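Assemble and predict.
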Amino acid sequence: MVIGKTIGDRVFEFANSLFMIGLIVVTLLPFWMCLVGSFSDGNEYLRGAISLWPEGFNFYNYKVVFMDKTIYSAFLVTIMRTLIGTALSVLFTALVSYGLSRSNLKGRNIYSVFLLISMFFSGGLIPYYLVLKQLGLIDSFFVYIIPALFSVWNMLIFQSYFREIPSVVIESARIDGAGEYRIFFQLILPLSKPVLAAIALFSVVGHWNAFYDSMIFTSSQSLETIQLFLYRIISNSSEAAGMAKAAADAVPVGARKVNPETIKMATMMVTTFPILISYPFLQKYFVKGVMIGSVKG
Amino acid sequence: MKPFKISYRFKAQFELQSMVWPGLLFVFIFAYLPMYGVMIAFQQFDFFTLIENANANIFKIFASSEFVGLQNFKEFIHDDSFWPVLRNTLGINILGLIFGFPIPIIFALLLNEITSAKFKKTVQTVSYLPHFVSWVIFGGMVLTSLSADRGVVNAILVGLGLFDSPVEFMANPDYFWTVAVVSGIIKSFGFGAVLYIAAIAGVDQDLYEAASIDGCGRFRKIIDVTLPSIMGTVVIMLIFSVSGILDTGFDQIIVLQNSLNVEMSETIDTYVYKLGVGQMRYSYSAAVGLAKSVIALILVFLANYLAKRISGKGIM
């Protein structure tokens, strides 16, 4: 339906577009300034005025970041927890959700109520902490994996997807003599790739960004995740200064080119890099994931 | 034939049950045991209890500990940090809700008016981005942007003549709430709009045509057609936001907090963490955490009641 646009319409559309461009700028500017700072010469950066382009473009900040040995261990811990944690939690949550989505499951209603109550009530941080302590999970790598194995929220998303699978498919497999586990692994999982991908992606991002658990439940340096490493650098300027000092001792030439601020920015860019490069390709799956979840909710 | 059928069904059901039980056990351990553990809020369980009962099972200590009634709650109310902590928790979160709740809706409505599909997609994609980086990274960028000597925010404000000289935002407690609320909104408005955008896309196009025929302009259509059509989503989201109102923000607050602004930045979550995990005052901090849950529960019922009164829709 085409109706001539009035002047008011045109003014509104122009102002609206301008507003949206403003929003893009506000959202991207912190990322951009951080990127610019991370490639800047440390001394130039402190002296110069604000600029939208690196001053004295160089890679020294990144060199300093990668000279620090703890960042490698932090990356390793984070990658391990992301891979293991995601694989196990997606599989485990999917299995439980599948069982619960079957209408012939005895006790299904009681089970569902039991699980749903846990979404609305919790014991709070301290009792939870004490339970983890009793289980020996405090300051253990498994605190990243085990408490994240199952999520009632993800279960609801899985269930709403599994319910869409025609029961005829399951019945015919059963008649062919397949057991429940075989049906799940060979029939249901291959049919559920979209929802598996969506949940796995959320889980990957969750594990990669998780900071709370390593901050509260671990204390060993060897269990530090990349987010906790970054938090240490950001919240404590002497940490970044220490990195700069260590680098200066190792490579005297580059010492003048870094300062704690630019090192912080380089660390932030390194930490967020995996998200930034995969984001344009993956973001549509995130939106799909939310949509699958909202069908029921 | 019949015995075969029963054993077959039992076997099938056993397999099916065995898929579900581990999940129930998991939830029992990680959700119900902590709920049982809430009783320490009414006991005197701390560092010394752990030392005295070095090898005892924590649950046995729970069960055998003496109850002290509401003593921990009284102690919290009379503590000097009570008012600042309560004020900051409610202040930051309620302001965050008042400003943060409508913005994704307004954003979704305005985005819907953009005619170029490609531009729309680009704006949407960019707006989600901050949701997918951690608070540590985003908070780090906020700190960098707000710094007095090289921060882009100070450069803009001074450039526009709003401030005479750069301000140390993070060193001044007066700015903390504003920083927390605004940074929270920037991080979450885009992803928060996803459901509204979907709801708007689902509005019956005939309604718009009918409205056009009736002579409605663009704004009348937004107010009289789009908004009522997505009202159900709005109410559900509002109740969810209220129910999570006191939960959110540990990562954000702990990243933005420093010793200079702690007076306006200490919330119940950070306080519980510092006293409970840091100082091992388990019973006291569990009581503080429980007080938070009770306040949150009251707020949910209040929100549901108000939503029902105003729009006739609620979730309970």
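The CA atoms of residues 14 and 137 of chain A lie 57 Å apart.
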